Give the backbone structure.
Amino acid sequence: MKLNHYLKEEILFIELSGDLLGESNGLQVVDVANDHIVNRKVKKCAVDLSQVRYMNSNGLGILITLLTKFRNKDGELVLIHPSEQISKLLMITKLNSIFTVAADGTEAVKMLGALE
């Protein structure tokens, strides 16, 4: 899994590619989020899943951890363009009722901006 992150309009964007299986890369994603929450007081996050090919239960755990961290700070997390496989996984686990999904980064900014 590859990870890229940046701040835009006070929103932490996390771009993931490859397979999200948990492992040590999952900790790296959580560390990036923690750093931005604690040191930069970021409360909003958009996770771009458009380049993630496969995700298992550990990957779901990472997304739930991120969502919890941001909501505990009165913030929010949006998933951007999950693949068909990930969308099915979210439906099967009924997590689609917990996560907000945006079609692209622009829509994610609008959704998160509406939370002011």
User: Anything to note?
Assistant: The chain has one domain: 2-113. The CA atoms of residues 51 and 77 lie 18 Å apart. Residues 2-113 form a domain with the Transcription Regulator spoIIAA fold (CATH 3.30.750.24). The radius of gyration is 13 Å.
